[in-house]
Hints:
alpha/beta; two-stranded antiparallel sheet; 24% strand; Rossmann fold; binds S-adenosylmethionine
Amino acid sequence: MIKDRNGIYVYPFxxxxxxEFHEKRDRPALxxxxxxxxxxxxxxxxxxxxxxxxxCLKGFDLTGKTCLDLGSGDGRFTTYLISKGVKNIICxxxxxxxxxxxSVFSEKENFKDKITLINCSAHDxxxxxxxxxxxxxxxxxYYLGEFHKIGIKNxxxxxxxxxMLISSEPCKEGIAMRSLIFEGLNQMFDTIFKGEFYEKQxxxxxxxxxxxxxxxxxxxxxxxxxxxxxxxxxxxxxxxRILYVKGSITKNDLESNLQNLSRVFDxxxxxxxxDKTHLFHHVK
Length: 284
Ligand SMILES: C[S@@+](CC[C@H](N)C(=O)[O-])C[C@H]1O[C@@H](n2cnc3c(N)ncnc32)[C@H](O)[C@@H]1O
């Protein structure tokens, strides 16, 4: 593989509905950038992802380790790994634009020498087997569609023995509730009965598949992983954000209630059951 002029290795890959959905969007998933917007769901959710990462990594010294940020996007969690002293992070994404954003950002923030950017798909990784200590795969496997399980098995092969995978997967119940509220009964039926749901940006729409939690855990287990921990991430952040975008909650409502919202999200983190996302911690 040869690095291009933006410092990105480009490795030809088989497109999936998920990778095409991201490529076609006029605004890529720049979640690191969105994290700066205090009125955005990403800003509300990110601390709960970080809490989970902290729990999983407790007692595990990342200094000098090699990590893989699979579906890294523009590096929302790459920066977290950098802050933990990781020596080398391989950032993989099928959407070139997100890696370009991360490349520019890493140069500005002086950590370009710590990251390797690869434009390829999560189910076909040009990385040596047993060479990675920790993999983050946050919000990426479900975009692989029919290659979902292959993606998980691939990651297993890349990890050293005892290495860990921290991943997230969409949760059927929360997504079904979102479908019911914003798309109606029929879409809720499709979500529950067929496991189908949609993501949209403007006119661009992608159809993705949801697995029940048992099916998901079987895919990891069949690949050889042992489950250490599971936690849910609430759907409420997203519902509040959609109601705001649709105009049912005003900007003023949000701005004057940020503290209360934060208290609600903290409460749901401890007591909620309507999850949008499963967070999994697996070990090889
Ligand atoms: C929801 S974003 C998550 C980004 C990042 N992990 C985060 O949480 O901030 C999903 C990312 O997965 C990428 N993606 C989609 N299909 C992919 C594939 N087949 N291989 C690698 N990345 C993919 C998208 O381009 C997008 O950047």
